Amino acid sequence: MLNDLLSRWPLIRQLQTGADGTGAEAMTEHTRNLRPKHYGAEVTRSICPYCGVGCGQLVYHRDGKLISIEGDPESPISRGHLCPKGADTYELHTHSGRQTKVKYRRPYSRRWEEIDLESAMDMVADRLWDTRDRTFQETRHGASLMQTKAIGHLGGATLDNEENYLIKKLFSAGLGMVCISNQARI
Amino acid sequence: MSVTAFLTDSTLCIGCKACEVACKEWNGVGEDGLDWSGFSYDNTGSVGASTWRHVKFVEQTPEPGFGGNAPEMNSWAFSSDVCKHCENAGCLEACPTGSIVRTEFGGVYVQPDICNGCGYCVVSCPFGVVERNEQDGRAFKCTFCYDRQKVGLVPACAKACPTESIQFGEIGALRRKAEERLAELRGRGMRDATVYDPVDTSVGGSHAMFIVRGDPRTYNLPPKPEVPTIYLKKAWASSAIAAALLLGGTLVAFLADGQRNGR
Amino acid sequence: MAENHPVGFQWVIAARERGAKIIHVDPRFNRTSAMADIWVPLRAGSDIIFLGALIHYVLENKKEFRDYVVNYTNASTILRDDFRDTEDLDGLFSGWDADKKKYDPETWLYKGAPSKDSGGEKAGHSDAGGGHGKDRGGEAEDAGKFEADPTLEHPRCVFQVLKRHFSRYTPQMVERYCGVSKEVFLKTAEAFTSASGPEKTAAICYAVGWTQHSKGVQIIRAAAILQLLLGNIGRPGGGILALRGHASIQGSTDIPTLYDILPGYLPMPVFEADSHNLKDYIKKHKARTGLWANFDKYFISLLKAYYGEAANAENEFGFNWLPRVTGDHSHFGYWLEMAEGKMEGLFVMGQNPAVGAPNGRLERKALAKLKWLVVRDMVETETASFWYDSPETERGELSPDDLATEVFLFPAAGTAEKDGTFTNTQRLLQYRNQAVEPPGDARSETWFMYHLGRRLKEKAKNDTRPRNGGLNALTWNYSTRVEHAEPDVEEVLQEINGRSLPDGKLLEGFKALKNDGSTTCGCWIYSGVFPRPGENKANKREPKGYLGHGWGFAWPNDCRIIYNRASARPDGKPWSERKKLVWWDVEKKHWTGLDTPDFEKTTPPDAKENIHRGRGVEALGGAKPFILHPDGVGWLFVASGLKDGPLPTHYEALESPVSNPLYAQQTDPAADKKERPGNEYAASPADPRFPYVLTTYRLTEHHTAGGMSRTLSHLAELQPELFTEVSPELAAEAGLEHGDWATITTPRGIVEARVMVTRRMRAMWVDGRRIHHVGLPYHWGYRGLVTGDIANDLLSISEEPNVRIMEAKALVCNLTPGRRACGAAALTQLAANMKRTSVSTK
Question: Does 3.40.50.1220 match the CATH number of domain C9-64+168-242?
Answer without folding.
Answer: no
